[in-house]
């Protein structure tokens, strides 16, 4: 019988070799699909890079995709570090956008700096509360946070749908189910296609690195993730630690909602997340829950997203082909992570033992 057993931690060089080999193998397999689609694989792969870095505008579009993915991944990372499986980043994202939009609707005439600050604060609070609800039930009653956070995604989506189609529907939209665009004093300033969210993201990354690696709370979250019994033994307040981690995790995901409506979409809608909340789970997990690797992987995934968007137009290939290329690369990367962490072991038969 064949068993799967955990390996010792591989060397950094071995990790790099296996991961690079996985990407090359993925590109080779994807080339078969590209050929059947009637395109030249080498030209198409070069087109992906060109679509991400070929001009300032394209690079700005790449960063536009990286910003929400990076912050969402950092938020998910905090919860995962504690082994609190936050699958609700999409819902926290949406609720953060609701909170930011609420500020605009209640106080539409605030000056731009104060408006943006208030939007960020309320987006953070709405996202945090949306995760602190399942965190409280987890700490108090031991409920399953995976199912709880997943179900809250659908509640948030239903709420935004109700706002878009009824309560906040724009009367000037000629009957279209649309929430009014944000006014100019609620939009992030933009320079050459790069909006101010990039500045905030740099600050967030630095703060999160310090929080997770240098602060007492970050240490407590890591200890609780390793062993709840150990956390109790050294006197940690389990409930408080869970709630603080949920506050940070959900708050960061909610903050993305503000960045997205104020810097990209210009209005709240059910489409603003684009599935990034689920992609962030993959990014955080592949990064080993370490901030520097989250940044690197978020940038890599942003290249995939922007490059796939560009080649659809530039090479006139169906969107399904671009999505399949992304899926193949992701599948091989996940496979390489499995090979790095586990190995197959076959039981010895009685004749072999003899």
TrEMBL record:
Transmembrane segments: 20-39, 59-80, 92-108, 114-135, 147-167, 187-211, 242-261, 267-286, 293-312, 324-342
Domain of life: Bacteria
Matches recorded under Pfam families: BPD_transp_2 (PF02653)
Chief site of localization: membrane
UniProt keyword DNA damage, yes or no: no
Membrane protein topology class: Multi-pass membrane protein
Keyword field: Cell membrane, Membrane, Transmembrane, Transmembrane helix
Stored InterPro entries: ABC_transp_permease
Compartment list: Cell membrane
Protein name: ABC transporter permease
Biological classification of the source: Bacteria, Bacillati, Bacillota, Clostridia, Eubacteriales
């Amino acid at each position: 019988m064949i068993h799967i057993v955990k390996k010792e931690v591989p060397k950094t060089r071995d990790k790099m070799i296996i991961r690079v080999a996985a990407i090359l193998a993925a590109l080779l397999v994807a080339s078969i699909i590209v050929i059947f689609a009637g395109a030249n694989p080498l030209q198409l792969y070069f087109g992906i890079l060109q679509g991400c870095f070929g001009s300032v505008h394209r690079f700005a579009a790449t960063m536009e995709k990286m910003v929400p993915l990076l912050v969402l991944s950092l938020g998910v990372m905090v919860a995962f570090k504690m082994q609190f499986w936050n699958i609700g980043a999409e819902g926290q994202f949406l609720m953060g956008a609701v909170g930011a939009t609420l500020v605009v609707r209640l106080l539409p005439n605030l000056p731009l700096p104060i408006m943006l600050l208030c939007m960020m604060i309320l987006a953070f609070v709405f996202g945090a509360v949306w995760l602190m609800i399942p965190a409280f039930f987890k700490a108090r009653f031991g409920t399953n946070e995976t199912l709880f956070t997943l179900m809250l995604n659908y509640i948030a989506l239903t709420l935004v749908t109700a706002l878009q189609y009824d309560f906040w529907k724009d009367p000037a939209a000629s009957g279209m189910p649309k929430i009014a665009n944000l006014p100019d004093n609620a939009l992030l300033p933009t320079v050459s296609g790069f909006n101010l969210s990039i500045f905030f993201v740099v600050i967030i990354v630095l703060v999160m690195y310090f929080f997770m690696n240098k602060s007492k709370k970050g240490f407590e979250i890591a200890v609780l993730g390793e062993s709840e019994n150990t956390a109790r033994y050294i006197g940690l307040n389990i409930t408080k630690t869970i709630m603080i981690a949920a506050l940070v995790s959900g708050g960061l995901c909610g903050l993305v909602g503000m960045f997205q409506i104020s810097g990209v979409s210009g209005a709240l809608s059910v489409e603003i997340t684009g599935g990034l909340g689920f992609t962030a789970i993959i990014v955080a997990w592949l990064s080993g829950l370490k901030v520097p690797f989250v940044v690197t992987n978020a940038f890599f995934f942003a290249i995939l997203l922007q490059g796939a968007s560009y080649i659809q137009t530039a090479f006139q290939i169906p969107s399904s082909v671009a999505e399949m290329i992304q899926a193949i690369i992701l599948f091989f990367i996940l496979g390489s992570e499995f090979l790095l962490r586990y190995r197959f072991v076959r039981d010895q038969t009685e004749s072999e033992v003899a």
